[in-house]
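Researcher: We're reviewing a set of sequences before deciding which ones to prioritize for further study. For each one, I'd like a predicted 3D structure that I can look through quickly. This is AcrR family transcriptional regulator. If possible, include the structure in token form so it fits the rest of the review sheet.
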Amino acid sequence: MVDTECQADQVVGNDQKTGQILDAALPVFVRFGFRKTSMADIARAAKISRASLYLSFKSKEELFRAGSMRAHALTLDNVAAMLDGQGSVLDRVEAAIGVFQRELIAPFGGSADAEELFAANMALAADITLAAREKLLSMLTQKLIVAIERKEIDLAPLQARPAQLANIIVAAMDGIKHTQWSGGSGLEDNTRLFMRALKMAVTPRDGP
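Model: Here's the predicted structure for AcrR family transcriptional regulator, in token form for your review sheet.
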């Protein structure tokens, strides 16, 4: 499995030029889709020459993969900060999911070529995406374990383990992303609805 933190250091680091290119590339991919985006389009958006762009990235595919690596690493840092913040565990989980959606899902989800972009990510950066998912699952599981120990939540009525619930949360997040372009209520509304249902299911009840 790829260590996204380790590789992200190479991509994020202090390399302002690389960051400038990757930041400029995202809106281009969103506008044109992966297939129609050219290195010339990205160079133009980054305000550099094509020759300069090719010094940093040999191909559009390499650039896209680097962008995915950087985005996942930065987002997971922000997710961790939310999970370590104040408030109830489920409020922190909801905030963390919101960060994950806004930073990784919403940018591509708002594109007319959303399905193509998500497919390109899985074709070019599946290992990065799956490693990030595993780290997210681990973080959620650990927070849920602590919440159970503190009697903040109770999974006994669901006959579920913390890792199972973490998997359900991430699976729901994956499913909810499709509502952004399928005419549904949208990411935020459907995430709030899911979290309300989850809170009702796992909040300890007093009395019989």
